[in-house]
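Sample A.
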Amino acid sequence: MMDKRVPDVPAALADVQDGAMVLIGGFGESGSPIELIHGLIDQGARGLTVVSNNTGNGEVGLAALIKAGRVAKMVCSYPRSSNSKVFPELYRKGEIELELVPQGTLAERIRAGGAGVPAFYTPTGAGTVLAEGKETRDFDGRTYVMERAIRADFALVRAELGDRFGNLTFNKAGRNFGPVMCMAAKTAIAQVRRFVPAGEIDPEHVVTPGIFVGRVVEVPEPAQESALIEQGVSYP
């Protein structure tokens, strides 16, 4: 029988290669797969292109991955916040590349990648520097910008429950980008707070079906939560 559970974080991340494109879930730190991110630091992959809503908070999670020099390029909608120190400093030094994408466009680019749609048109960004070098077309008297879908090598997401088939449920707002990122990656890796027996998750309550998930690792008490809490960062 199919079993997508892996014994630990290192096993889940063992084949992430240098130069990979990695989708990382989370809105701020809500739903951020902190343990997987720190596992990726330990794993050692470099030159990564990371797609995420923001660039991390404090010096934990995504911010720690960036600080470790593992990220060559960030694709995100919110590169700076009151708790984001690492990325702005490296960006000003020219040590990391940024592709800025409006938040709704970012979500749709990822969703389109998962749905097999290569590109789409959106009015967001038309007439601004974000549209430079991109194809535009007029529809019904309004200018639209063509945006390419995002497909990635890996997705790292955090879920609440998972079973051996890879079916996932999420904790409220912690869902955010997780479901579409799982669809848009060749290999989606989920850290879950708890494994449950197959069949315990009501099919009507499954948010991300296991067909979109490659590996699931149980992290019942994330060690990095206390570090975030000490920094005043919410980590639901």
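Sample B.
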Amino acid sequence: MTKSMEFIDRHITATTPTFSASVKSLGSPLSEWISISYLIARTYDAIEDCSSADWEIRYDALTSAKFLVWDKEKRKTWIPKLTAIIDNAGTSIHKGEIGLLKENEEFWTYVDTLPEKVIRIIEPHLNFLSDGMAEFARNEKKIGTAGFPTMGTLLNYCYSVAGVVGTLLTDLFVDSLFDETQNDNHSLLQAQSLAPSFGFAKQLCNILKNIGDDIKRGICFIPRDLLEREGITSHFLIENPEHNKSKLLVLKYISFIMPNVLQAIEYTKVFKNFESTNRDQLAFNIRRALAAQIILIIKTIKRAIENPHHAFYERKLQLQREDMNEIILTVIRVSNSSEETDIYLRSEYAHLEIMIIKANKSF
């Protein structure tokens, strides 16, 4: 591993070890491009998540983050803005994210190693991402613990912070894999239409893991109309985590995640069955990496169905390193053929559906 990739690998492992394990399987240079691009997004995400810093500070940093992938001069005035975020971080963001912010000046030197075509692909997505996160930072207190007004507004948020990451990854996959044939154009359109659902599934699942933590820090991502239909408030959830109403709320929320998981599974099918050996191997690597992330989502949802109240306790639903090792072994076992991967993911999804039905009947 080169010195530059040692730096990138250290930070991507510290900030998101589950994603790190998947992206490594893509092979060079795609894994490097995606790792660096993802860490830019993660930098913005850390700024947005740092709720202990005043919203104006975060809003300023995020709105002024546009065009940083091109504009080296702009970085000279932008990077000092991170000091206020770091100084006020407290426990609102974890140490891996703080470490990335502290070494951000050096990090951008690795961004400059990206080919121009990659920068042209990722810049619009990253600009959209920083704008979306800035808007959320501005409205965070207004939303507060009352919850997002509707599932629609929550999905809009999820697109601006995660769905767009799905489209960014897809555009890099497309550039590396597809050509201009008629068949590839069809696959390209399929990939681009399904990519946001992959991001939605990941973000909605991340919210599931942190419902209690988020409420305690002053923000509730559960839609307000769902809370009202169930006759409870966000404070009820963290004050009465073992209550049946709280557990049922989690199951209702999971039902909103499920269609996006199904679409994410369909998304993986785009990357298979290519005539060229080289393209087929790259498509295989992409599909394996995506499958690992979907299995991670499914495993998290399965835990939440088994113990819905764990959504209200710190890190109870967080997967550990041994969980990711198990997921990687599962992917290796089932990814010998596209058909076997399809069967496995669909059967796991069907099992989740059965679990939800049984869990709902038990209350």
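B remarks: The chain has a mean pLDDT of 87. Residues 1-116 form one domain.
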